[in-house]
Amino acid sequence: MELRTKLLVGGDWVDGADRFADVNPATEETLAQVHEAGPDQVDAAVRSAREALPAWRDLDPHARSVLLWRLADLLEERAAELAVVETLDNGKPSFESAKVDLPSVVENFRYYAGWADKLGGETIPVSGPFLNYTLRQPVGVVGAIIPWNFPLSMAAWKVAPALACGNAVILKPAEQTPLTALLLGELALEAGFPAGVLNVIPGRGPVTGQALVEHPGVDKISFTGSVETGKLIMREAAATVKNVTLELGGKSPNVVFADADLDAAARGATTGIFYGKGEVCAAGSRLYVERSVKDAFMEKLLERTAKMVPGDPTHPKTRLGALVSKEQRDKVLSYIEAGREEGATLRAGGEAASVDGRGYFVEATVFDDVDIGMKIAREEIFGPVVAVLEFDGIEDAIRQANQTIYGLAAGVWTRDVGKAHRFAREVQAGTVWVNTYNRYDSASPFGGVKQSGFGRDLGRYALEQYTETKSVWVALDG
Ligand code: NAI
Ligand code: MG
Q1: CATH 3.40.309.10 in the chain, residue ranges
Q2: Spatial separation of the C-alpha atoms in residues 164 and 65, rounded to whole Å
Q3: Which atom in ligand 1 lies closest to the alpha carbon of residue 324?
Q4: What is the pLDDT of residues 52-83, one digit of tens each?
Q5: Which of 56, 196, 219, 427 has its Cβ near the most Cβ atoms within 10 Å?
Q6: Which atom of ligand 1 is nearest to the CA of 224?
Q7: CATH 3.40.605.10-classified regions of the chain
């Protein structure tokens, strides 16, 4: 596939108001000059979406299903190429793009293709001589603003259910990783989606993103990204009372009890923090280990960490890629510096790295003797850096796990079923993994509590984010 760099608006590839350089973070080379949507292009995208909406909303549900399925087929046919682009743009290992991201994106479109013709309302028994029923109707024009860590997956998580429900979508990919979103737009055209039903408009957050959030013609903003930007969007969206879904950051606790299978727990803790270079909103970045097994566990953890060597992301054996940008690399390094200054013990990594003298890599880093008062235990680092803390017993585990402003995900490792379920019930998180970590499925809801946001992606729960429920009363005594 040839790269697309222009904006997809109303079925046409159009020029932006400006351009920005999209960089390959593993080589520091510019991949493309990508067009940026200014307020005029955002307005054009909104107008084309509004124009496309009535026919799309009223299309036979089965026809929407067929189109989504066809798009899934095209994504599957081009999966290998898309995975390469994703890796070049983001720096993630091709193992992840090709074996995890792309298959799940295809599955996601098929999953929501299946829902498109199954969105019924209900009849409700009310008092009096009335028939009362509900209609599930699309919200309207949806602005999807997504981050750079899982570019195509995040696009799929929002675009697939929104389209299945009959909404028109304006997708704003992150400026660090716009390429696969543009190719998704191209494949949607090829699949036969009507012009304007899916628009793709790259651009920087404060330019393109903000214009989309402010636009009165947008009915809903579905956002995944940082807490700061989420708060800003919530404030901005208030001006036009937009429906908002926010999936924000995390500082997720991964809790290892003394009775756990320590080898499995060490493996899960390693992938829990180093998968996706730690640029994962659900990363298990606070690793709590029960005191009595701490030394034994640390030995296993460090052994596995030593194998996470930064490498060329395009190499199939690489498991730790480049961070997405110089900014992100520098931010992660500044947290490592803070960890050292605040007195945590550095047990592995801690330095920037490069491959052939280039790239924004950071070593797999383990801090021990971390205190919850330290910055590295409180703030989302979004990099391959884990903070190890200790606990004693279930009460202490739950108390410490919840000692955060976030509530996205949590992991627990134990052979005691009662302990596992009690932890799952009492931990404040949108997702809990028991004796596993970082599991996702199109059918299972994902999202946060507390400052990790509200609303859910995936599963049938996402359908609620993209539909309004209308109550209809019919007098029967007429
Ligand atoms: P960000 O939250 O600012 O960016 C995410 C998306 O929001 C991008 O598409 C961006 O263009 C857009 N955006 C930014 N400002 C906007 C605005 N004023 N109005 C509308 N849209 C806007 O995250 P950024 O700056 O890329 O990364 C900063 C930090 O955020 C990272 O270091 C990381 O800690 C965290 N982060 C967390 C993510 C998560 O999934 N939890 C994803 C990305 C970043
Ligand atoms: Mg890039």
Answers
A1: 253-441
A2: 7
A3: 26
A4: 999 999 999 999 999 999 999 999 999 999 99
A5: 196
A6: 40
A7: 7-248+452-473
Percentage of the chain surpassing pLDDT 90?
Answer: 99
- The DSSP secondary-structure symbol of 132 reads E
Interval between CA 204 and ligand 1 midpoint (Å): 10
Q: pLDDT value at position 44?
A: 98
Is residue 1 over pLDDT 90?
Answer: no
Name which of 252, 211, 199, 210 is nearest 408 in CA terms.
252
Tokens of 379: 């703030």
The confidence score (pLDDT) of residue 93 equals 98
Ligand 1 is surrounded, with C-beta below 6 A, by 145-149, 172, 174-175, 204-206, 209-210, 213, 224-226, 229, 232-233, 248-249, 281, 328, 331, 380, 382
Residue 342 has pLDDT above 70, yes or no: yes
Q: How far apart are CA 204 and CA 175, in angstroms?
A: 5
Q: 478 pLDDT band (50/70/90 cuts)? A: low
Tokens of 95: 């193992």
Question: Minimal CA–CA distance to 287: which of 348, 228, 212?
Answer: 348
Given CATH 3.40.309.10, say whether it is the number of domain 253-441: yes
Percent of residues in the chain assigned helix, strand, coil, to nearest 5 = 40, 25, 35
CA–CA separation, 371 and 431 (whole Å): 24
What's 387-405 look like in SS3?
Answer: EEEEECHHHHHHHHHCCCC
> Residue 175 corresponds to which tokens in the numbers above?
């400026």
Average pLDDT over every residue of 248-252: 97
pTM metric for this prediction? 0.98
When pLDDT is averaged across residues 193-220 and rounded to a whole number, the result is: 98
CATH class of 7-248+452-473: alpha beta
